[in-house]
Known about the structure:
Radius of gyration: 20 Å
CATH class: Mainly Alpha
CATH architecture: Orthogonal Bundle
Strand content: 5-15%
Strand order of the largest sheet: 1-2-8-5-3
Largest sheet: 5 strands, mixed
Number of domains: 1
Distance between the termini: 58 Å
Amino acid sequence: MSTAPHFDIDMVAFWTDPYPVLEELRTEAPVAYVPALDATLFTRRDDIFELEKKIDVFSSLQPGGLMTRLMGENMMRKDGDAHQAERRQMFPAVSPRTVRDVWTSAFRTAALDILSDLRPRGSADLVTDYAMPVSAAALRVMTGLRHMTFDELDGSSQAMIDGISNHAGDPAVEARCNAGTALIDEHIDRVLGEDIEQDHSILSVLLAAGQPMEQIRANVKLVISGGQNEPRDAISGCIWALLTNPDQLSLVEREEVSWLQVFEEYARWISPIGMSPRRIAQDYQVGDIILHQDDKAFLMFGAANRDEAHFEHADQFDLTRDASKHIAFGAGPHFCAGAWASKALVAEVALPLAFEHLPGLKLQGDAPRMRGWAFRGLENLPVAWTP
């Protein structure tokens, strides 16, 4: 256990809204041990930006960690050459060029199909009826798991992210995670049993690179775990942020800010992925705090992205700010490999098409509910528009 000051957290309140606690931590104990999580939390942006790169100390290799145990040892749980080798093998499927030349048009086609069915209804929950299927449609073509339904992709993703953030050890959560990973394996086996044409999909690219099957399975699960929930939560979250801040929406409508600025500022303000865990690989001292080998450390991206040292009025959604110092996609060698695809899906396709094809979009009905701290997003977004 580290020598950091202890800081007790009400985990139910933290799950509902982590930001008041994170602000308190940044101010009073920017490096703190939280007994409920059995981890030392880092909450200041500059500390995380620097320390995430020190992979000899803040290691992603976590043999006993939840992600490794439940999903397999994917490239996110490796460092150095091992991580970079698998990252290079996946790169042809997620490179900026592939996103531009292959995936963006596929994303647009899928989104337009979903909107054509949605528009005549005049109302919907945009989490389940738009953000979820748009994200899942993109993920299905990118992974190559062409038989997985939108519900299966979303359910498996949610089961895995619930599983890897199940620090309380709830057996029901772990069981759902195991069922989700088993379903993905079934779909991988189904595609492998068919004739596979070489294309840009992740499954095809990793097979062509000769990656061992065990690693392919783990890395496909990794892609689904983050590649579904993060765009889903960003799409619905950005729409909610704009509808509840009409002055900010007017900036977009007047083309004074871009859709990419909307996405970047939302990712700073409400980080869909709010934390990244690390294992302390060797004894290390931060200021007067000693971290011991095999301690757990949580790099709190959600806290870093509201660090007052870099973002004035950080708790406000402000499209005019410079959000370039946010670290919602990470800051070191584990910078999100799917960042370009996510930006294209959310900023180039899902957001502009939603406001174009759902005229007069407005909130209605039950108030939207936000949840989570390691992964944070809306549970619902009831809206109406002019059919």
